[in-house]
Design goal:
Number of helices: 4
Helix content: 25-40%
Number of strands: 3
Distance between the termini: 42 Å
Largest sheet: 3 strands, antiparallel
Oligomer: single chain
Radius of gyration: 16 Å
Mean pLDDT: 85
Structural class: alpha+beta
Shape: globular
Order of helices and strands: HHHEEEH
Strand content: 25-35%
């Protein structure tokens, strides 16, 4: 639900699809696929930055979004990997402030 709000992609378009099917940036799509594949093989990824374009209500790009993600394997009671759990935090505003600070410091 929250990812739908952040991305601008309606939930019904996301359910049952791969993330690469609705992210706009091909480079980021490839990066997230590597993170998810690592998690499916038991390798945890923490603090992975995912950048993509959000959409407005008409489906057009509406601005950049930066998420800080972690991904880990989901295990059943026998320890077998059954999926991936990913937790994310929207750090778009933080990254924007950080970028402005760096530009300001470069001028001073």
């Amino acid at each position: 639900q929250k990812m739908s709000k952040i991305s601008g992609v309606p939930r019904h378009e996301v359910i049952g699809t791969r993330i690469r099917d609705w992210l706009f940036d091909a480079n980021e799509t490839q990066s997230i696929e590597f993170v998810l594949q690592d998690a499916l093989h038991g390798k945890e990824t923490a603090n992975f930055e995912l950048r993509f374009q959000s959409r407005d209500s008409s489906g057009r790009p509406a601005g950049g979004v930066v998420l800080l993600l972690s991904a880990t394997a989901r295990l059943d009671s026998t320890g077998a990997i059954t999926g991936v759990v990913s937790i994310g935090q929207d750090i778009t505003e933080h990254k924007s402030l950080e970028d402005r600070k760096m530009r300001f410091m470069a001028v001073v």
